[in-house]
Amino acid sequence: MQSYAKNLIYEHNLTDFDVFIACFPIFYTTFAEKSVEIKKNTYNYMIEIIEKYFPNLTEEQKKQFEALDALYRDWNSKINVISRKDIDNLYEHHVLHSLAIAKAIHFRPGTEILDFGCGGGFPGIPLAILFPECKFKLIDGTGKKIRVCNEVATAINLQNLKAEHLRGEDEKGKYDFVVSRAVMQLPDLMKIIKKNFKQKGRNALPNGLLCLKGGNLKEELKQYFKISEITPLSTFFDEEWFSQDKQLVYVPA
């Protein structure tokens, strides 16, 4: 490209502006081709990072996971659902992170799950895609984030999920499991959700809380030390991001 521009200058005595006008179609075409290539690579990565760990997805599930990128980018341009610096890491830092729960337990059909403090839909939406025969309720105290959850669910035809603008203290339903992503200190969370567990379970793992947490949890979990289970996410996933003190905490009801 540079030699082509130089030849134009020397052979035709053109100004830099003339060269820019002459070369613009070439620049634009090259940029467009690169953009398509980047988009294609991103698309392939979306598919590969999920299928790498969940190889038995149906075509419908693949389409639903694929659709999340455009949907969350669109909503993120209107509402700060995900850190704008992190939106390019949607599939690793948010979707796959949410699906770590599915590596610890395969929810049986009919299982009812509450996503407490769901934010923009994590971990609830990825889990609802993966477990279409389970029922998910997402709650959050921020109405605009609940709107995003419902709009995303509608857009991908996710029929086993509903999201409601509701404080956790006001949720009266009974569930097999509560899931969460570091919404608050675990002792405070357990005080709120202890009323929401069904007594009888249907899964291999007894009913309880499955919470994605980070950092040193020794002090936070000291009163649950004997009954809780802590699993580093690097046990499930080999991407470097998951080796950075990211854990799944299980506390039975």
Automatic annotation (TrEMBL):
<feature type="binding site">
    <location>
        <begin position="168"/>
        <end position="169"/>
    </location>
    <ligand>
        <name>S-adenosyl-L-methionine</name>
    </ligand>
</feature>
<comment type="similarity">
    <text>Belongs to the methyltransferase superfamily. RNA methyltransferase RsmG family.</text>
</comment>
<comment type="function">
    <text>Specifically methylates the N7 position of a guanine in 16S rRNA.</text>
</comment>
<dbReference type="Pfam" id="PF02527">
    <property type="entry name" value="GidB"/>
</dbReference>
<keyword id="KW-0489">Methyltransferase</keyword>
<feature type="binding site">
    <location>
        <position position="117"/>
    </location>
    <ligand>
        <name>S-adenosyl-L-methionine</name>
    </ligand>
</feature>
<feature type="binding site">
    <location>
        <position position="122"/>
    </location>
    <ligand>
        <name>S-adenosyl-L-methionine</name>
    </ligand>
</feature>
<feature type="binding site">
    <location>
        <begin position="140"/>
        <end position="142"/>
    </location>
    <ligand>
        <name>S-adenosyl-L-methionine</name>
    </ligand>
</feature>
<keyword id="KW-0808">Transferase</keyword>
<protein>
    <recommendedName>
        <fullName>Ribosomal RNA small subunit methyltransferase G</fullName>
        <ecNumber>2.1.1.-</ecNumber>
    </recommendedName>
</protein>
<keyword id="KW-0698">rRNA processing</keyword>
<keyword id="KW-0963">Cytoplasm</keyword>
<dbReference type="GO" id="GO:0070043">
    <property type="term" value="F:rRNA (guanine-N7-)-methyltransferase activity"/>
</dbReference>
<dbReference type="GO" id="GO:0005829">
    <property type="term" value="C:cytosol"/>
</dbReference>
<dbReference type="InterPro" id="IPR003682">
    <property type="entry name" value="rRNA_ssu_MeTfrase_G"/>
</dbReference>
<keyword id="KW-0949">S-adenosyl-L-methionine</keyword>
<dbReference type="InterPro" id="IPR029063">
    <property type="entry name" value="SAM-dependent_MTases_sf"/>
</dbReference>
<feature type="binding site">
    <location>
        <position position="181"/>
    </location>
    <ligand>
        <name>S-adenosyl-L-methionine</name>
    </ligand>
</feature>
